[in-house]
Amino acid sequence: MLAYSKNVLSKMSFDVMLFKKELTKACKNLLEEEIEELMNWVMEKFGPQYVLKPIPVKK
After folding, report:
1. Is the pLDDT confidence value at 8 over 60?
2. 50/59 Cα distance (integer angstroms)
3. Which of these, 39, 1, 44, 40, lies nearest to 20 by C-alpha position?
């Protein structure tokens, strides 16, 4: 699933909003370790503008 997610994200890199939408979907389907690896890959390949920002949650 990680390889598939990387493939999809590579094809969506032309549009930041579409990329982030696909990245969000990928994170819902991956294991925690795979998410960390994916985020590192995104940072290396595309730069910080493509990485998801944490969303603060009110308790």
Report:
1. yes
2. 28
3. 39
pLDDT score, position 7 = 97
Domain locations along the chain: 2-50
Residue 36 has pLDDT above 80, yes or no: yes
| Separation in Å, CA 11 to CA 20, 30, 48 | 12, 19, 18
Tokens representing 18 are 């579409």
d(CA 36, CA 1): 14
Q: What share of the chain is helix, strand, coil (3-state, %, to 5)?
A: 70, 0, 30
